[in-house]
Amino acid sequence: MKKFILSLFLLTVFSGICFSQSKNFEGYDNMSWGTTLEEFKKQNPSAYDETKADNIIRNEKLYYKDGNSVTRVYRFFDNKLCWGRTVYEDPSEAICDAIIEKLKEEYGPLYDFNEGKDKDSEYFILSWYPSTNLTVMFELQQIYNAYGRVSSTLLFITYQNDKIMADIKNYEKQQKKKNLEL
Asked: Strands of 60-66's sheet, edge to edge?
């Protein structure tokens, strides 16, 4: 009987580990990854198309939706949601700190930190990887003017499905291979 109970306990523990799902919502703005463009348009009639030529090459569409203090960007691959971004323009330091705290509460401790600089900007990226289908990034980018002073600050909170993002890169590579001359 003890072996049976021990086996049942181990089976329960391992099945919980093997089949557990992320407790975090996997998608963006209350829309799951894979939401179709048609469903999105029905739910967001004020969203507008900002698809550029380089998006078309990657079989993507970009839609924007303006809010009170943010702009939301939705990226669709093969007409399915795969990426979302919330954009703040010139946020205060208090807003940045509050967002970082909220991200830590939602997704746990920070996993990765990157920073970089070029002649026109400086950036900081904080990343969380709550599951295999969700990456969350906080990016603060300071843009410099001709005098080397910060002229504006952009804050991006990006949610993406890494598997679909890899599919996009592969699709783009396959498209480019078609036109290569050897």
From this structure: 48-49, 60-66, 71-77, 80-89, 150-160, 134-144, 121-131, 112-117
Cβ proximity of 85 and 64 under 8 Å? no
105-113's contacts with Cβ under 8 Å and 24+ in sequence apart are 106/24, 107/24, 107/136
Q: Cα separations (Å) of 174 from 11, 54, 72?
A: 43, 14, 30
Q: What are the residues whose beta carbons fall under 8 Å from the beta carbon of 106, sequence distance 6 or more? A: 24
Bridge partners for 141 per DSSP: 123, 154
Instruction: Tell me which residues of the chain have a pLDDT lower than 50.
Output: 1-22
Predicted structure pTM score: 0.80
Residue in this structure with the two tokens 């391992």, named with its chain if needed: 14
**What is the phi/psi pair of residue 54, to 5°?**
-70, -25
Phi first, then psi: what are they for 79, rounded to 5°?
A: 65, 25
In whole angstroms, give the CA distance from residue 28 to residue 134.
10
What was the pLDDT predicted at 4?
34
- What's the one-letter identity of residue 2? K
- Tell me how far apart the 2 most distant CA atoms of the chain are, in Å: 78
**Rounded distance, CA 154 to CA 2, Å?**
60
The model's pLDDT over 40-62, given as tens digits with 9 standing for 90+, comes to 999 999 999 999 988 887 889 99
